[in-house]
Amino acid sequence: AQSVTQLGSHVSVSEGALVLLRCNYSSSVPPYLFWYVQYPNQGLQLLLKYTSAATLVKGINGFEAEFKKSETSFHLTKPSAHMSDAAEYFCAVSEGSNDYKLSFGAGTTVTVRA
Amino acid sequence: DAGVTQSPTHLIKTRGQHVTLRCSPISGHKSVSWYQQVLGQGPQFIFQYYEKEERGRGNFPDRFSARQFPNYSSELNVNALLLGDSALYLCASSSYAGDSGNTIYFGEGSWLTVV
Question: Among A42, A44, A90, B15, which is least packed, fewest CB within 10 Å?
């Protein structure tokens, strides 16, 4: 069975500063990994996904994530935070392309200080 | 193209009542999944349907049931509502994408409040 741990339930950054959100996974098979963003009172929007191609994945809104098998990690970064990045971010894992079930982490809330 | 659409967006029910939530997947997607998101937590998998057959079920009681119709739309039904069923219910659709892996797209959700 797969699972995800997100380190840090809240992250506060200054506008223009680096955003780093941590995600570690456990999976019995090579995983598919996802980052989703949820703005207040909205559904989930896909930021990016890793599917065993390139280990550095670029997503929307300037976000990227790096898959590190040796560390079982899939951390999300953005070089320069913008006020519009304030939201909740979820890391999720599925076990392969035929598995439509996602297991989510508990989420990290990002606040951006002016 | 329309994304995943869900209805209703908000509803309030009384304990013991029944609720039906509806979902239309993205055109061409044959898989629909349902997730429950309790305030302050990550979404939890409830059901997945593919080609109108149940493919997976999460750790939810039998009060929760779902079905998928020939047009791939889906309903989630919850009987005998409890206060703890208050949550955002998310529908997601996807299509098999081979080695590139499936991408799962979510709707805006249905907010259920049980009083």
Answer: B15
